């Protein structure tokens, strides 16, 4: 189930559980600044085929920076 996590939990998941960080930002925003090691899967492009790039055995952390 999706849930909101804080920075400490993000770090723990990445370091201890090899979590995958997915940024759902548009490509231009991802190129200008993104989390190191993150995969870019823009939100409008998410579909069963695009998520095949992810390892189903590892946790997934989805990130989107929205200032609105």
Question: How is this structure best described in words?
Answer:
By secondary structure, this protein is of the alpha/beta class. The chain has 2 helices and 3 strands. The chain has a 3-stranded parallel sheet with strand order 2-1-3, with no helix packed on it. The protein is globular, with a radius of gyration of 12 Å.
What brief labels describe this structure?
2 helices; alpha/beta; 3 strands; 3-stranded parallel sheet; globular; single chain; 68 residues
What's the gist of this structure?
The chain contains two helices and three strands, in the order αβαββ. It has helices at residues 7-17, 27-32, and strands spanning 20-23, 39-40, 60-63. Strands 2-1-3 form a three-stranded parallel sheet, with no helix packed on it.
User: In angstroms, what is the radius of gyration?
Assistant: 12 Å
Describe the biggest sheet? 3 strands, parallel
Q: Helix/strand/pairing class, anyone?
A: alpha/beta
Distance between the termini: 25 Å
Shape: globular
What is the secondary structure topology, with strand pairs?
Layout: H1 7-17, E1 20-23, H2 27-32, E2 39-40, E3 60-63
Parallel strand pairs: 1-2, 1-3
